[in-house]
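Tutorial, part two.
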Amino acid sequence: MAYNLLKGKNGIIFGALDEKSIAWRTALKCHEEGARLVLTNAPVALRMGEINKLAEITNAPVIPADVTNMDDLKKLFEEALNHFNGKIDFILHSIGMSLNVRKGKSYTELDYGFNQKTLDISAMSLHRVLRTAWDLDAMNDWGSVVALTYIAAQRVFPHYSEMADAKALLESVARSFGYHYAVKKKVRINTISQSPTRTTAGSGVKGFDGFISYAEKMSPLGNATGDDCASYCVSLFSDLTKMVTMQNLYHDGGFSSMGVTQEVLDGMEDE
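Running the prediction step on this input gives:
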């Protein structure tokens, strides 16, 4: 059921790769709620993914952009402003990449060159996106920016490795830039700490099936799906949450508040 929560709003969705992507699910939900969209991803991701299918469904242009390149981001925002013939109301940052994880390097054996790229792509890209929007005065007053994160920013998940550091930095950028953007334009910036979700990117983390199984047992409501997350994003893009900013919002079925559940205890006793 649609509620027209985003009717008349313009948004940019970063990171849709395929139907498993939370960004993909969010784009569909935003379109359903009446938003006009621009889709973007890195050129290499656009070649690997199926974003043209999403573009057709949502009637949205696809504008490639490398989020580590300020010229690319400037071009993206300028083309989006031209497409909308107006300013932007919301942005989804759904971007993460770890070369160390891809290469199977443990946290104690990081390649620091890879690490710098991970932090640049997965965290500082949010600063670049916000800086570009700020410099171009591209956001409408009371606009909303959401970035996706994970509870490994606060707790240790051994195989999540350097991505935990990247997510912690991402959350810090959201808070720090959130202050400045709120004062200047009433733009709100939040992060959503989502349940582990079977995306193409997430499945590359060693032991990911174990992550999901454990979280399911530890979450009173169970794991939140990608579609659930898309709906939460819509609520944060809408005018119903105009006073929410600089928050890390847990969307995890209650996982973040639990010490242990009976289901986990029962499993331990069975062993």
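The chain has a mean pLDDT of 95. In part three we will examine how such features are distributed along the chain.
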